[in-house]
Amino acid sequence: MSTETSNTPRRGKHEEKDKRIWYIAGTVIAALLIGWLVFTTVKATRKAAALEVEKEQLEIKQAQENLEREYQDLNDEFAQFENSRKYIKDDSIKRELNDKYEAARLQVEKLQQELSQQKHKSAAEIAKLRSEIDTLRALLRHYVEEIDRLNKENQQLRTENEEIKERNRTLSTRVSETENKNKVLSERMTLAERLNVSGLTLQPLNKKGKKEKKVTKTVQMKVSFTIPQNNSTPVGEKTIYMRLISPSGQLLGGGATFPFEGGAVEYTAKKTIEYEGEEMPGVTIYWDVNAPLIAGDYTVELFADNFRLVSSHFNLR
User: Fold this and answer.
1) Domain stops at, among 185, 214, 240
2) Which domain holds residue 203?
3) What pTM does this model have?
């Protein structure tokens, strides 16, 4: 009886110790399991983040390559219009277009170089490159539109000049025919009775009334001549009509006409004089410039009394 009583408490202590051991072991295992789960989760998260960054860099790299191809295409297009720049006569417009395009092109190349030297590229930098290339594209579009507009204007001017030349050829033919008819049929007027003209000059004037060297800056044209003495010419009031023809064959001024052997001929300006049979030096006819002038050969024709008195050419620069 005494033996059983002494062994019972000892077994209870062993059981309690075993329980503590199992509890500690279970806690350690649980902690290890949780740690493993946390480690696995963090590792997976980092791997996913790395893959996402790698994917983003690949997309940015692809976008950069696409933009570089676009830039090269724009440069190729710009080069195609090198020959078309000859239609832009205004040097300031040509210089402005070229300077703007060159500045934008250099900015694009700078951004491209910066991106190529960076290991990690950002979407913001790609967006900046995209913006600069869009600016370049807009400049090229403006360049093309400007050339197209000038081409159309030049074509229109060429067409108008051809029409004007044709009208003047027709008029010259009619004037020649009229003169021939006048020589044959006119009994009242003879060559002896016609007013003579000598010393014909054409002089461009500036706004101060002084001689202007550049015809493009001329505000007034001055035609001067002398009418020599001619006893065969009937005295009295004479109206002298002046025709001024530009290098393109266009009659300057115009609108008003004078009768010429049954027809009507346009003139630039006129002057009425009182002729008394004596020499009249320094007769002048002025025309106020109302259209853009160009350098080249100008023709001055004078008419009076159904005669073309003179036709002379003057080269103005």
Assistant:
1) 185
2) 194-316
3) 0.42
